[in-house]
Amino acid sequence: MMTTNLSQRSLSHPITLLTRLAYGVGDFGPSMAGNTLMVFFFFFLTTVAGLSPDRAGLILCLSQGWSAVSTLCIGALSDRTQSSWGRRRIWLLSSAPILGLSFWLHWWVPPGGEWLRFSYFLLMALLFQTAGNAFTIPYGALLTDLSDRHDEHIRLNGFRFGFSLSGCILSLLLAQGMDRWISQPQQRVFNLGLIGAIVIVLSILSCCWGVTEAPSIHSQVQPRNESPQQALQTWWQLLYNRPLLLLAGIYAGSWLALQITPTLLPYFIVYCLQRDSSAIPQLVLLMQGTALATLFLWERLSQAIGKRLVFWAGTSLWILAALQLLDLRPGQTSLLYMLSVLIGFGMSTVYLIPLSLLPEVAAIDEQHTGNRREGLLYSVLVFLQKIALAIGLLFVGQVLASADFQQAVPGPIQLVQPTSALAMIRALTAFIPVLSLLASLWLMSLYEACPSLSMQKQLRLQLVRVSSQSK
User: Fold this and answer.
1) Model pLDDT for residues 18-60, shown as the tens digit of each residue
2) Do residues 23 and 159 make contact, with C-beta atoms less than 8 angstroms apart?
3) pLDDT tens digits, residue range 176-188?
4) What is the three-class DSSP state of 221?
5) What's the pTM value of the predicted model, to 2 decimals?
6) Which of 49, 89, 255, 352 has its CB 3.0 to 4.6 Å from that of 85, i.e. a possible disulfide?
7) 7 found inside a domain
């Protein structure tokens, strides 16, 4: 079995503030676009574009499902890429124009019937998800190409998600501004899409300019051409990598809650709490602003008490706050704001902790395989997260349709819904995040029960068994 002396991979240069800023700013534009889609797209499809909730859910399910499959391909390919721009940055550069253009075209409603609109939005979603993976997977794997120090990984993730949340907040502030300046809902989101497209391209270019990959730290880049037997062995190794599988489950559960909560909030705010749609960006802004404000507080606390305890503390606050939404009634504005702040505390730990555990899993994997496979490992995490989100969005669309949710024709938002739809919106908004967070906490307890040395020993034995079976 091929092993690597990890001490020989230390970077020859320190991580500078400019590098941290450049790495972080790369996620500013994509997060701005992703947050706009996460908060408004499902709601836009059913209340502006005139699609039924089951068809809107199907669009998001199919696009997320395709995204999950393409994730694994891009992760493996980026590990094998060799260019003058390194393994990762060439992917970032190539993704930028497609990501920006497809995001902008999300917000144009084509003339014609519902099936034509369905096909158009599905095509745009598939294109955006493909380009998004071409950015996200190499960008996430770039973290371990910049430093081998776990404290530096936390710091780089802090900068990344600091800029990420700033992009999310900017998208909500712009949405509020569009509400005041433009009366037509379709024109508002179309202009928001154009601004987002420009910011996507500029932020990715800034990252590629300011970050330098260090190929000297790679012990062995994955070969470009593998035999079928070698490829099969690679996947068997991943399936037997228990720390990786646990981390993938933690990431999928916590990010399902993180991404589906803003998708459900517009329905909860407009229909259950009977507030104007202008309140949607205000509430999401409060959550994400709190997450940004507490991000570096959680970072400091994680260095004192550990990443896992921080994750437990933050997600527990989120669970308690989400359960209170079941009893929240119209007019309870102060309580709504307080619960939003608590949810923001929990969101901050979900942004910070799971991905900061990936480098230690990658280090164990490299020690026992001799290969640097951060792109492939990160793609496994994103694959399971995309599958969970696809199933969750499809479930939401089908359940709302079965509860007689009334979609609007293209035009003004319809405020009246049957009692069955209101009850289902309230239940979905509370229980989907709670159940997914509970699952991630349970998996974190299993991950925490495996100290680093025992994980390494267990993985070594499993990989030796797999290699002997393949021979």
Assistant:
1) 888 999 999 999 999 988 898 889 888 988 888 888 899 999 8
2) yes
3) 887 777 667 777 8
4) strand
5) 0.72
6) 89
7) no
